[in-house]
Design goal:
The protein has 254 residues and is an alpha/beta fold. It has 2 domains: 9-95, LarA, N-terminal domain (Rossmann fold, 3-Layer(aba) Sandwich), CATH 3.40.50; 99-249, Alpha-Beta Complex (2-enoyl-CoA Hydratase, Chain A, domain 1), CATH 3.90.226.30. The chain is 40% helix and 20% strand. Strands 7-6-5-4-8 form a 5-stranded parallel β-sheet, with helices on both faces. A two-stranded antiparallel ribbon has the order 1-2. A two-stranded parallel ribbon has the order 3-9. α5 crosses α7 (177-189). It is globular and about 55 Å long.
């Protein structure tokens, strides 16, 4: 999960059956730099687990799925211990340590995972650590439904720049707007290209560069990064979490 670390576990309580104010307060914690994919100590997850203790949650049943939506593991019992067993299985399956490259190609996973950019953004977030600073990330996602959330579209439309959108996120929170902010932040660190059916102006509004085909996107990336640039491909970008080897060597990974 791109800001709760992992799905499952205490999420059954918060946000699962919690009030809207509680959910909003919890989600506001995604602004913390430690609220990242694969981090069991994400402040969002820790807050969820505090809520589960208050609610006296005493049993969970979680499953781990493969790319074909088949159950490969079931884990049940204590909401911390059972969840950690599932998280470890997910790590073994989907966490990959890589040498960051100049160009990264990430696929959102096809229908229905790429119906809109709101959903497809997860594949971009999973790929960010595979790209060198200033590198290019190409996201393949049809996005036939466009952005997929009114607040997402409004925040992107109202932003005068990526910096403006990210600064707004630092002082106010609105669910949906966070997607625009995350894309804005990523565009300040990497050159983003979206291969989709979205209109050019909508893509550019979301701080990304539009391309109609992968060939076109690769040509754009190589023109920027050099014809001999290293490339990494993530065919299951919605599932695979890339972790830079250099980052892990310095202890900044979860």
């Amino acid at each position: 999960h791109y800001y709760a670390g992992f799905s499952g576990g205490a999420k059954a309580i918060l946000p699962g059956v919690s009030s809207e104010p509680s959910v909003v307060k919890n989600h506001e914690l995604m602004r913390d730099p430690a609220a990242t994919t694969g981090n069991l100590k994400s402040p969002v997850r820790l807050d969820m687990e505090d809520a589960a203790r208050i609610a006296d949650l005493d049993f969970i049943l979680n499953t781990v799925l493969n790319s074909q939506k088949e159950i490969v593991l079931s884990t049940a019992g204590d909401f911390i211990k059972a969840h950690r067993v599932g998280a470890a299985a997910v790590d073994r399956m989907y966490r990959r340590y890589v040498e960051p490259a100049e160009i990264v190609v990430s696929c959102a996973g096809g229908r229905p995972k790429d119906l809109n950019l709101f959903q497809a953004q997860k594949a971009l977030d999973n790929a960010k650590n595979a790209a060198l600073p200033g590198g290019t990330i190409i996201l393949l996602a049809e996005c036939c439904e466009g952005l997929g959330h009114p607040a997402f579209e409004r925040w992107a439309c109202e932003a005068s720049s990526a910096e403006d959108c990210w600064e707004r996120f630092g002082r106010e929170y609105e669910f949906g707007g966070h997607k625009a902010a995350f894309l804005a932040r990523e565009s300040m660190e990497h050159h983003l290209i979206l291969v989709s059916s979205m209109p050019r102006d909508k893509v550019e509004m979301c701080f990304m560069n539009p391309a109609k085909t992968l060939d076109e996107a690769l040509a754009m990336a190589k023109a920027r990064q050099g014809k001999d640039a290293r490339m990494l491909v993530m065919p299951y970008g919605n599932l695979t979490l890339a972790v830079g080897k250099r980052a892990s060597a310095h202890g900044s990974w979860p």
